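Supplementary Text 2. Reproducibility record for the structural model of the 330-residue chain.

All settings were left at their defaults, and a single model was retained for analysis rather than an ensemble. We include the record here because the model underlies the residue-level annotations in Supplementary Table 4.
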Amino acid sequence: MSEFRTPVRFEDAVNSALQSRSGLRRERCTTLQLNVTKRCNLACHHCHVESGPNRTEAMDKAVVERILELLAKNPEIRTLDLTGGAPEMSEHFCDLVIGARKLDRRVIDRCNLTILFEPGQENTAQFMAEHEVEIVASLPCYTLENVEKQRGRGVFDKSIEGLRLLGRLGYGDPDTGLILDLVYNPGGPTLPPPQAALELEYREELATRFEIRFNRLLTITNMPIKRFAHDLMRSGRADEYLSLLVNHFNPNTVPNLMCRDLVSVGYDGSLYDCDFNQQLELAMPGPAKTIWNLEDFGELEGKPIATADHCFGCTAGAGSSCSGTLQGDA
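Retained model, structure tokens:
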């Protein structure tokens, strides 16, 4: 459950958008998103996982082996999306990458860039390039002041150096096939600007100032849960932000919501409709589902999706998902 309430129920808004009373329901699962650890070398203000250096939760070997077993049994799942925390800090990160690539699955690593310079991570970038891991890298702005206000002192310079390191390995170069996407999220309680226009701005600034190339920019709305929600409540802007999301509800985003074809897996093997629900411990409707009591992810097709007030964050404006906006910029 989210930390505050809106006067409009998300279920009602979705049912109206779908012209149905059956609610939001799952389609065929094509992506497994694993929260492999809540440990991170950073503690960003907007983090919906509340990750940080002192978190200890992480997937163990048994969960990792079961995930790879399920990938082999479910060929329709084409993408393994690794998130955290800093997923690279998991002792089983390489095992997941190697195992999934052997199964010819697409692997995404959600990287904060600064992790590439932590002790023990000296070979991580090279490893990911060798295994053609797609990188989705956090860079909430192309200026030092805005990045460090959100993510902490020293983060901007390390992020730029991380992008340069990846560039030297061929990431962001259309001739190599090594995908490097960047992620923008607002510095406060506002909606992201149009993704296409901001991407052009990022390209020009990063190329001119740092000779950095990338494939796509993904804009993601800050979710009103956990650390960001606490900041909103402390500043007295919680109701204002929720009203902003509700008032910008876009029914055209509903068919493309990521929870329809993605399953989120917790470090303990529990299954959720999305990573946001996972952090709120908002379980899938019905009997508890884990990697241990599910063999065929096709069983989830047509099942209802758990929703709450925070879901307005994914449907406001052009929409928001782990792949950026859900609708072309108006």
